[in-house]
Structures are given as C-alpha cells and as structure tokens.
Amino acid sequence: MSTHAKRERLLLADLLESAGPDAPTLCEGWTARDLAAHVVVRERRADAAGGLVIKPLASRLERVQAEFAAKPYDELIRLIRTGPPRLSPYSLKQIDEAANTVEFFVHTEDVRRAQPDWTPREMSSVLADALWSRIERMARVLGRKAPVGVVLRRPDGQTAVAHRGTPVVTVTGEPGELTLFLYGRQGTADVELDGDKDAVARLTEAKLGL
Q1: Cα separation of 68 and 62, whole Å?
Q2: Helix H or strand E encompassing 36
Q3: Domain, as residue range, for 80
Q4: Chain centroid to CA 114: how far?
Q5: Which are the contacts of 108, defined by CB distance < 8 A and separation ≥ 6?
C-alpha cells in the first residue's frame, strides 16, 4: 500500500477502535460498526460492492454488509488494518492510492466530526496537494447534482469547476474541507461560500457526491 492510503487507513482504524462500535458517524443511519463493515465489504466482497454504484445490486450489498456488521467489531478493525486480500484490485499500489486516499480520509472525518469534542486535524501540505489533485479530476462527477454553478477555490487561488451553471457559488477552503464539501458533508466542512444567498442555501442542501 502506498503512503497516503496506508496512513489514512491506519488512522481510520484507530479512530473506529477508540470510538467504539456504537459511536455515531456523519453517514446518516450508520454507527461506527456499520461504517467499518462498509469499508471491509468494499475491499473484500467485489460481488456485493458493485451495489454502491449499480442500483439492481443494492439489495445484495445491504445483505452482505449486514452480515459483516454482525461480526465481532475487533475483527472488522483488524480486517481494515491488514488491508485488502492479495487478489483484490485494491492491493495494487496505484489503485490503492487513487481509490483509497480520499475514501479513507472522508470516512476518518465521518468518525472524527461526529464526536462532540472533535478538533480539526493537522494536515501536511503533501496530503493536501494529493487531495486537491483528486478533487480536480473528480469535481464534475461529484458536483453533477448541484443546483447551481460551483467553483472550488483553494486559499492560494487555485480553482476547479465542479458544476457549470448560473448563478455561481464559489466555495473556498483547504483541500480537505473542499473534499468533504463535495462528498456531501457540507454541514461540517470548514469553507466559505460566496454567491447569491438563495443559491448558497440551495447548494448547502444539495445531495452532492457519488
């Protein structure tokens, strides 16, 4: 596993372990146990994980995920820490880095920010740039359901268009916060929204993400 994905994986496992199986998360309706089961199924049960994007397979995914959620919590944490099996595509370094850096970062914050005493994490500039690189490539997919035009802006002035349209809302923040915003965590992302008041309200309530 490559550097960013591996570090985010281990951080997520640590947070899930310390939070406990019944802790809330930012994923609506999911406890930490449910989130842990999701991560394991995504990597280890390709036959069911397709339900994440293919609606006809969604019911199978729900059944398999419920089966994993019923396993001992410490077993789920162990499976997350040890990573995907050798035959999983996620065992390839390039795929692991491309697919899991953002996945694990977002879910780490799903656990962290659902706790009443959470504090912002310190992020290296290298990880920030890695997240920005992925957001630049994925912005239009993640922002496709936005009801208004959306421009993302880093504090240093770099921008990316997430959705073309009018009126336009400019979302300014650090790459990690922009990532959370585009993945549907608008309520917890530390960003500034600049635009028409009604457009800002509509964007804040929109269903963003995959």
Answers
A1: 10
A2: helix 32-44
A3: 3-112
A4: 14
A5: 8, 11, 12, 15
For the ranges 71-75, 92-96, 160-164, 188-192, the lowest mean pLDDT is seen at 92-96
Among residues 62, 81, 112, which one ends one of the domains? 112
Is the residue at 119 inside a domain? Answer: no
Do 103 and 140 belong together in one domain? no
> Cα(14)–Cα(26) distance, rounded to whole angstroms?
17
Same domain, 106 and 186: no
**Alpha helices in 70-168, H assignment, sequence order:** 73-82, 93-112, 125-142
Q: Tell me the pLDDT tens digit for each residue of 27-67.
A: 989 999 999 999 998 888 766 555 555 566 667 777 888 88
Contact call for residues 165 and 148 (beta carbons, < 8 A): yes
pLDDT tens-digit profile of 76-131? 999 999 988 887 777 888 888 888 999 999 999 999 999 988 888 888 999 999 99
Give the Cα separation of 148 and 101 in Å (integer): 28
Q: In degrees, to the nearest 5, what angle opens at C-alpha 198 toward C-alphas 196 and 201?
A: 110
**For position 166, what pLDDT does the model report?**
92
Does some domain include residue 140?
yes
